[in-house]
Amino acid sequence: MVESMTGYGAHTVASKNYQITVELKSLNSKFIEHNLKIPRSYMKNEIALRNFLTTKLRRGKISGSLSIEILNPDKHNLRINTALVAAYAKELNALGKTTGISEKPSLEFLLSLPDAMMGEDGVADEEEWKMIDEAFRVATSELLKSRIHEGKTLGDDMKRSCLEIRELLKVVIERLPDRTKLIRSRVEATAKELKDAISHDQNRFEQELIYYIERLDINEEIVRLQKHIDYFIELLDDKNSNGKQLGFVAQEMGREINTIGSKANDATMQIAVVKMKEELERIKEQGFNIV
Q1: For the chain, what is the radius of gyration of the CA atoms?
Q2: How far is CA 23 from CA 29, 37, 99, 111, in A?
Q3: 19 inside domain
Q4: Do residues 272 and 215 share a domain?
Q5: How far apart are CA 247 and CA 207, in angstroms?
Q6: Based on the domain organization, do 115 and 155 belong to the same domain?
Q7: Which of 49, 130, 162, 267 is 20 to 30 Å from 283 by CA-CA measure?
Q8: Where in the sequence is the domain holding 111, given as residue range(s)?
């Protein structure tokens, strides 16, 4: 089961006291990265949230936001962070002068900015934390669903490319007998041309033959490429998504395709090899987005 690193998930939890919304978005990354925007009063829980996301999502650049609306004014003894609000106003007014925008920020807007208003104690109560925890878990589940949905599309496209490479490899295999005859005739022609020049040097003549024989034999590369294709498809169908392992196998496929191309010495085979490389490039590009 292929899982994409790109996805989106959100969830809102509400009670008579609070309405809490969590939004999560993930993009490509070699590792797991977090960028969580949460109020200062919830910072003590940030590590737990990060660990939870790491366990569930494994790879990707994760951006998350936590929005909390207090529905019951009596639930918290709210206070205004006057110094911070004043600083916000000063910076925004200065920005307005620089950009030529005359409109001044409203008090409502200023109070909506991060940490402009907070509880007396500056910490979340038990009800809030339980709701936050639930919102994060459901949003993460939704994000995973979207990643799996997109992953299926990626996996289907990569499998299609693998099957196309397999068909192109059949073209190479079918061409082998005619190619062997063609190269044998070239060797014989070259041997006749070199006969008088190197008749006194048998070692050189044997080296020429060995050179052409080595260029002729691509059976090992064909067998290895077939096995790599089979293994790649097997990984695509595995219950666990492993983008790194798929990347390693794709590299091995590329190595065999390149070797076949360098030894082909045949126009029909070269065309098939070029098409194989095109399909493999598609596989690699898709692979960058897999967990």
Answers
A1: 32
A2: 19, 10, 31, 21
A3: no
A4: yes
A5: 38
A6: no
A7: 267
A8: 78-119
